[in-house]
Design goal:
Elements (H helix, E strand, L loop, with lengths): L3 H4 L2 H4 L1 H22 L2 H21 L1 H11 L4 H32 L3 H10 L1 H10 L1 H20 L10 H10 L5 H16 L2 H32 L10 H22 L6 H25 L1 H4 L3 H18 L7 H42 L1
Helix pairs in contact: 3-4, 3-14, 4-13, 4-14, 4-17, 5-13, 5-14, 5-16, 6-7, 6-13, 6-14, 7-8, 9-11, 9-12, 9-13, 9-16, 11-12, 12-13, 16-17
């Protein structure tokens, strides 16, 4: 008997994303008309919302895969909470509240004043956001680097895509804290290249990013240990939920900051990136329900390589600007190659299994 999930079409997973796209683009066009009073302004706002949505999707392929990997271990209750509350936090928290908080802290003003600044003086608002880019990139890059390295420095990991790299990393995983040492060495290298206040800000933000990752890991382990004493129905998954929210935030840092290169309008940025976030949510649900990660054995590897590259790019962006399009296309290309490798593996495996299956069938018939 075919399960409802198995028979569900790919397009059906994106129905909400399509609806949000239509509504978001219409709202963006309205903002453009309301702000400028011209059809040119309307078309520009519409186009920027569409470009930001595509940018967010391209930057978040790996995010969806990592989310799906963590979600499959969570209880259905916490899966539902992440996919409902999580999207609210992702759209409103990271795309609206986070930029306002950065400006409020950097300019020493209250959040309401920051909101008024975004609405009335978008150029000044954008300048403050750009000025805060270095510590944000250092924090997010460190957190993401720890996520990627922890995946590969795992002595229990027995499926390897790029064997000569991953086998060595799995072998050295028996050395306690090797991934932390690697990150700290990289932090010291970048700190030595930067000058004065930039070096100090980078160092402090990187340490905070590292501590945040370690604290989340400790909290998740503590909660998981305490949940083992509960019944299966009562187990939650708050630790995993918290980990995914911080992970989502780290992925969002680069997109939110980079969006100001296209427009200084906070609300258009929120609409465009919010549309993209809905597609990430839809992709995550599809990957979990269809078991795509289990079927394509190297897809997860591609996502974590993309995370490592993104983390390094965020570090490099503290020295020089790298267009977000390059970041997004690089991650998407890695995931595409890993998908292609998975399909090739499945075909080779199917061909190798065919003679054995034929022999077993002949025996059964005999």
């Amino acid at each position: 008997m075919t399960s409802p999930t198995a028979s569900k079409s790919v397009l059906s997973y994106f129905s909400w994303a399509f609806a949000v796209t239509v509504g978001g683009l219409a709202l963006g066009a309205f903002l453009g008309w309301n702000t400028t009073g011209t059809f040119g302004g309307l078309a520009t706002a519409f186009f920027i919302c569409a470009v930001l949505a595509v940018l967010e999707i391209s930057l978040s392929f790996d995010n969806a895969i990592v989310n799906a990997n963590k979600l499959k271990e969570m209880t259905p209750v916490w899966q539902h909470r992440f996919l409902t509350w999580g999207i609210i936090i992702a759209v409103f928290g990271m795309r609206i509240i986070f930029p306002l908080a950065i400006v409020a802290i950097a300019a020493w003003i209250d959040p309401w004043e920051a909101l008024k600044l975004a609405a009335t003086k978008p150029e000044q608002y954008a300048e403050i956001m750009h000025a805060a880019h270095l510590p944000i990139a250092a924090f997010g890059g460190t957190f993401l680097m720890m996520v990627g390295l922890t995946y590969f420095f795992n002595y229990e990991k027995d499926v390897h895509w790029i064997g000569f790299i991953e086998k060595r990393m799995a072998h050295f995983a028996t050395v306690k804290g090797i991934e932390i040492a690697f990150v700290l060495i990289l932090v010291l290298i970048f700190t030595s290249v930067l000058d004065g206040d930039d070096a100090t800000a980078f160092l402090h933000a990187s340490i905070y990013g590292l501590l945040t990752f370690l604290l989340v890991e400790v909290l998740a382990g503590f909660l998981d240990a305490s949940q083992r004493t509960m019944s299966a129905a009562a187990r939650g998954g708050f630790g995993a939920f918290l980990y995914l929210e911080i992970l989502d935030a780290s992925f969002s840092f680069d997109g939110v900051i980079g969006a100001f290169a296209l427009t200084q309008n906070l609300f258009i940025i929120a609409i465009g990136l919010g549309i993209g976030a809905m597609y990430v949510r839809s992709m995550t649900i599809m990957l979990v329900e269809k078991g795509t990660l289990a079927h394509y054995r190297y897809l997860e590897h591609g996502a974590f390589y993309a995370i490592l590259i993104l983390s390094v790019i965020m570090y490099i962006q503290t020295l020089t600007h790298i267009p977000e399009v390059i970041t997004g296309l690089g991650g998407a290309a890695l995931i595409g190659i890993s998908l292609w490798s998975s399909i090739r593996y499945n075909k080779r495996n199917a061909l190798a299994q065919a003679p054995v299956q034929d022999e077993e069938r002949d025996r059964a018939e005999a």
